């Protein structure tokens, strides 16, 4: 059995269903008020920012924006996403619950690790009943927004046994590489070219994860 660390957005949660419309609405507000130049963003351009914590995302996406406006935009986007999730617009990837249940029933310890804020983690846990599957929950806000690979070092001593990291972005694979762990890269998520190259196994569908876990443990 293993401690399996799951990323959330783009690995379990089909985030673009709520993120893309919220992103476009926020950018429209900024453009309409003259803070940024109007632009039609593609899904690929938008999905690139999934996996970053929201503060880092806005600092990188609009570095020249007035900090107060940038923070207002961050909050606006988050509140828009929250409303959509509460209204039922959000969704986990198809078969995600079956995969999590299968791994849990096999006796693995499932650990949630996301570059999100506490209120986001708590809302999604409630809406999608994630506590049916996950034994432990960690998010970057609880650790002052340090990188995932450093967060792992702070909580890992609490859980005995080996680890496997599963995720769709470089933050997840970096967590494995920096700590000498096995990893599974999720190509069905929102990764860009080359981000998953250092993963031990790359899967193209969430249903491939249980067999990939078994292969890494054999």
Protein architecture, described:
This protein has 2 domains: 3-14 and 92-217, 3-Layer(aba) Sandwich (Rossmann fold), CATH 3.40.50.1000; 16-86. The protein starts with a strand and ends with a helix. The chain has 9 helices and 6 strands. Helix 7 packs across helix 8 (170-179). The mean pLDDT is 97. The protein is 44% helix and 12% strand. The protein has 218 residues and is of the alpha/beta class. It has a 6-stranded parallel sheet with strand order 3-2-1-4-5-6, sandwiched between helices. Strand 4, helix 8 (170-179) and strand 5 (182-186) form a beta-alpha-beta unit.
Overall tally of domains: 2
- What is the gyration radius calculated from CA atoms? 17 Å
Tally of individual helices = 9
Assess the beta-strand content as a share of residues. 5-15%
What is the CATH level 1 assignment of the largest domain? Alpha Beta
Distance between the termini: 11 Å
Overall mean pLDDT score? 97
Strand order of the largest sheet: 3-2-1-4-5-6
**Oligomerization status of the protein chains:** single chain
| Annotated CATH homologous superfamily of the largest domain | HAD superfamily/HAD-like
In CATH terms, what is the architecture of the largest domain? Answer: 3-Layer(aba) Sandwich
**SSE class:** alpha/beta
The CATH topology of the largest domain comes to Rossmann fold
The run of helices and strands is EHHHHHEHEHEHEEH
Quantity of strands, as a count: 6
How would you sum up the global shape?
Answer: globular
Share of residues in helices: 40-55%
Weakly predicted, low-confidence segments: none
Biggest sheet: strands, sense, closure?
6 strands, parallel
